[in-house]
Amino acid sequence: MNQYIDSSAKLGDEVQLGHNCVIMEDVVIGNNCLIGHNVVIHRGSVIGDNVRIDDNVIIGKTPLSSPRSIFKVAQNLEPAHIGSFCQIGANVVIYAQCKIGERNLIADLATIRENVKIGMLNIIGRNVAIENFVEIGDRNKFETNSYITAYSVVEDYCFVAPGVITSNDNYMARDQERFEHFKGITMRSGSRIGANATILPGKVIEPDGMVAAAAVVTKDVPAARIVVGSPAKCFRTVPEPQLLKNNLDTKV
Questions:
Q1: pTM of this prediction?
Q2: For residue 183, what pLDDT band results from cuts at 50, 70 and 90?
Q3: How far apart, in Å, do the first and last CA atoms of the chain sit?
Q4: Would you tell me which of 6, 15, 52, 89 could form a disulfide with 108, CB atoms 3.0–4.6 Å apart?
Q5: Do 1-63+78-135 and 139-252 agree at the fold level?
């Protein structure tokens, strides 16, 4: 098979590689990994045991930067780390200095930017974009085409429905003062966002808070309350059977 494997790379036992793989210097791949066709793993990246990586995936990519970019690319970004038992779908791009815990599912076409930390047992759906400087806890679900903006925090057991948009710049790229207020969203444990909702910069969804489909959130969402509309307003309390404490599943 046509492959490039740098002599400094370390591959564990029972690693299967597809055609046209490129594995750069100092990469470490654990035992029993399945690497698809046309996969590129950049310098120093670390892959745990029993990881599946599908075709056309790029791991450890260095970000681009325009002279007009707000974020400047740091020198000597640390390599990407992928925890054991992760599953990574086709055409996924995971950037350098990204740390992903164990047993995450990252579906086809997802993008995870640099300086992202992800815990365990998350589901990151098809074509989800997670921007830089985001912190994600455990057991969250991000559904197809959702967008998590830079400088956001998502705790545990959160749900983000398809087409959700989050934002971090109230000034929409105008006025130097915007740099003093640049902030993503915060989702506290058990909070949920419905399909096609929009969350404005810096807003906090408190524990068990719920944003209805298509709502536009301009204020913080109180704990265990449902907000609806544009701008979103409190509608009623989250039903008792839907509270996180009544839905914890720690079997896996």
A1: 0.94
A2: confident
A3: 37
A4: 89
A5: yes
Q: Please report, for the chain, the start and end positions of each structural domain, with discontinuous segments joined by +.
A: 1-63+78-135, 139-252
Number of Cβ within a 10 Å radius of residue 248? 12
Residue in the block written with tokens 């950049």? 42
User: Above 60 in pLDDT, residue 252?
Assistant: no
- What span, in angstroms and rounded, lies between the C-alpha atoms of 144 and 142? 7
**Fold of the 139-252 domain:** UDP N-Acetylglucosamine Acyltransferase; domain 1 (2.160.10)
Asked if residue 51 lies in contact with residue 33, where contact means CB atoms within 8 angstroms, the answer is yes
The CATH fold assigned to 1-63+78-135 is UDP N-Acetylglucosamine Acyltransferase; domain 1 (2.160.10)
In sequence order, which residues have a C-beta less than 8 Å from that of residue 163 and are 6 or more positions away? 144, 145, 146, 195, 196
Q: How is residue 135 written in tokens?
A: 């912190």
CA 243 to CA 252: how far, in whole Å?
20
Per-residue pLDDT reduced to its tens digit, 27-76? 999 999 999 999 999 999 999 999 999 999 999 999 988 777 666 777 78
Task: State the residue for tokens 């745990």.
Answer: 48
* Strand ranges across the sheet with 116-118: 10-11, 28-29, 46-47, 81-82, 98-100, 116-118, 135-136, 153-154, 186-187, 204-205
- Is residue 205 within 8 Å of residue 211, measured between CB atoms? yes
Question: Which residues, in sequence order, are bridge partners of residue 29?
Answer: 11, 47
Q: SS3 of 29, please?
A: strand
